[in-house]
Design brief:
Layout: E1 7-10, H1 26-39, E2 43-47, H2 53-65, E3 70-76, H3 79-88, E4 95-102, H4 105-111, H5 116-131, E5 136-142, H6 149-162, E6 166-171, H7 178-191, E7 199-204, H8 211-220, E8 225-228, H9 242-251, H10 266-277, E9 294-295, H11 298-306, E10 325-326, H12 334-343, H13 350-366, H14 372-381
Parallel strand pairs: 1-2, 1-8, 2-3, 3-4, 4-5, 5-6, 6-7, 7-8, 9-10
Helix pairs in contact: 1-2, 1-10, 2-3, 5-6, 6-7, 7-8, 8-9, 11-12, 13-14
The structure holds 3-methyl-2-oxobutanoic acid and zinc ion.
GO molecular function: 2-isopropylmalate synthase activity
Organism: Neolewinella antarctica
Protein name: 2-isopropylmalate synthase
């Protein structure tokens, strides 16, 4: 792997599926896993096998099906979880166990009711046990975002020494600021011996709307894997959105980072996940929302009709969107009206356009959007 390639670890089928009411069955998961492979993700987190027989079966079937991506199964730092994860991964060509434990004061004191030293012991034991089944073991330090850097470095040093291959530094509660998260990753990179043999991973939640920014900041701090989901789905406010981080790296070449993702498949993958889960994508969602390439105000429409990049930084075709939309509303101007009429085969003169526009705004004030049928009616009813 080139050092500037960012591995895309997709957790749509594990953390993404933790969305209340959006459960997928094995068949649906297989369809999504095949699509993720086509999309070019490097790692598919297929599930949490100890959680239910159905999830165990899904991980097994995904392992049997996909060829290229690493197939990863989640486990707590609990021996039975690890054994179950290992058993579910027997079918996988490239298996990875993802094990870990909470490291913040809040998790140690209130959730796990133990001591920092015991956390390190359990982390090391989990990694060593997982290593007895598979070579590729990822360790997560849950709530690393709220864990002091000195203690976090002690935990990470211990699991590096125990043989972890990937080090996941989750901002589980979506608390960090980008600069803070970047510094956390950089601190580990600079203070843990032997860390350069491992891949550092980001795993950011979106409670403050910062998951994408934090993931990119983490990569700037030295992470080389980003954990994310299609459409940013996941617990509470969700996880980092795959399509956003991928397109940020593409749009900002100065970051010097790239991924293996075929961006032309982003929209169809988004639709597949949204439909399978019955989870609507917000219209203004970056990259894949219905309005991501729609222009409705006259000022913007005039610019975009003259030259697309006046108001669009991404060519819609690059993410699998057919074309930008010029939506006719009461805020639209003559340029947009003429453009849409032309698309319907009506080439009108300036005088005709002025006349049509007077009638158009009346219709537009009455309804949210003026469609093709309304335009045909307008052409029929106005003497031009
Ligand atoms: O958010 C989180 O900390 C997680 C871990 C289980 C990786 O999802
Ligand atoms: Zn998570």
């Amino acid at each position: 792997m080139n050092t500037n390639q960012i591995q895309i670890f997709d957790t749509t089928l594990r953390d993404g599926e933790q969305v209340p009411g959006c459960k997928l069955d094995t068949q649906q998961k297989l369809v999504i896993a095949r699509q993720l492979e086509l999309l070019g993700v490097d790692v598919i987190e297929a599930g949490f096998p100890v959680s239910s027989p159905g999830d165990f079966h899904s991980v097994q079937e995904i392992g049997r099906t996909v060829v290229e991506p690493v197939v990863c199964a989640l486990s707590r730092a609990v021996m039975n979880d690890i054994e179950t994860a290992a058993a579910s991964l027997k079918t996988a060509r490239r298996p990875r166990i993802h094990t870990g434990i909470g490291t913040s004061d809040s998790h140690i004191q209130y959730k796990l009711r133990t001591t920092p030293d015991k956390i390190i012991e359990r982390a090391v034991a989990a990694v060593k046990y997982a290593k007895s089944f598979v070579e590729d073991v990822e360790f997560y330090a849950e709530d690393a975002g709220r864990t002091g850097n000195e203690f976090l470095a002690r935990v990470i040093q211990a699991v590096v020494d125990a043989g972890a291959t990937v080090l996941n530094i989750p901002d589980t509660t979506g608390y960090c600021l980008p600069q803070e998260y970047m510094e956390k990753i950089a601190f580990l990179r600079d203070n843990v011996n032997g860390i350069h043999k491992c891949t550092i991973s980001t795993h950011c939640h979106n409670d403050l709307g910062l998951a994408t920014a934090n993931s990119i900041a983490g990569a700037q701090g030295g992470a080389r894997q980003i954990e994310c989901t299609i459409n940013g789905i996941g617990e509470r406010a969700g996880n980092t959105s795959l399509e956003e981080v991928v397109m940020i790296m593409r749009q900002h070449e100065s970051l010097g980072m790239y991924t293996n993702i075929n961006s032309k498949l982003l929209l169809e993958t988004s639709h597949l996940v949204s439909e399978s889960m019955g989870m609507v994508v917000q219209p203004n969602k970056a990259i894949v929302g219905d309005n991501a390439f729609a222009h409705s105000s006259g000022i913007h429409q005039d610019g975009v009709i003259k030259r697309r990049d006046t108001y669009e930084i991404i060519d819609p075709a690059e993410v699998g969107v057919d074309e930008s939309k010029i939506v006719l509303t009461a805020r639209s101007g003559r340029a947009a009206l003429a453009y849409r009429l032309k698309n319907l085969g009506h080439d009108v003169t300036k005088v005709q356009l002025d006349e049509l526009y007077k009638h158009f705004v009346v219709v537009a004030d009455r309804q949210k959007e003026v469609g093709d049928n309304d335009l045909e009616e307008l052409m029929g009813s106005v003497a031009v």
